[in-house]
Amino acid sequence: MISLFKFVGTFSLGLLTGISYSLTTITLPSLLTLPTAPLCARTLSTLRARSTAHYRLFGRVASASLALAFALSPSRARHPYLLWTALVAAAGCAGGVELALRHAHEDDDIRDMGAAREDEVNGEEVREAVERLRVVEGVRTGVLGIGLMMGIVGLWGDRFGSRRLRGC
Predict the structure, then answer these.
(1) Could you say which DSSP state residue 27 is in?
(2) Which residues contact 2 (CB under 8 A, 6 or more apart)?
(3) How many domains does the chain have?
(4) Range of 70's domain?
(5) Residues 93-143: pLDDT tens digits?
């Protein structure tokens, strides 16, 4: 059961990293090719809302699974990497990256742009919002990627460490 929690947490962290990476490298640059600023602003607002929902879901699953794996492990197998990885998943998804980069106001700007009338949307403001979000997602990708590597290395170590404990 503990191994299942470790696997689910690490897998969810991998999905989070993939979502952030694809937003940074594929989706956000593609938004800048849309023909009008209002269309880009509406799409950016929708994209931000949907990605935030996925971040919250997978972030909670990853954090909870890894924390449960730590809590349920026997004391000899209670590895701190589980807590560190859970904290990285939570920080990467719960707004920690935005706060660290001081772009917490970005959500309101994007939401306001999506709700604005079409003739009021400024193309340069939309471009700046896309670029700011791209920086935030790039940092998030790095943070989540580090967490994913910690989880994979930890799982690998658990596998070989358990063999050593059994005398294999």
Answers:
(1) I
(2) 69, 72, 73, 77
(3) 1
(4) 2-166
(5) 877 777 777 654 555 555 555 555 556 889 999 999 999 999 999 999 999
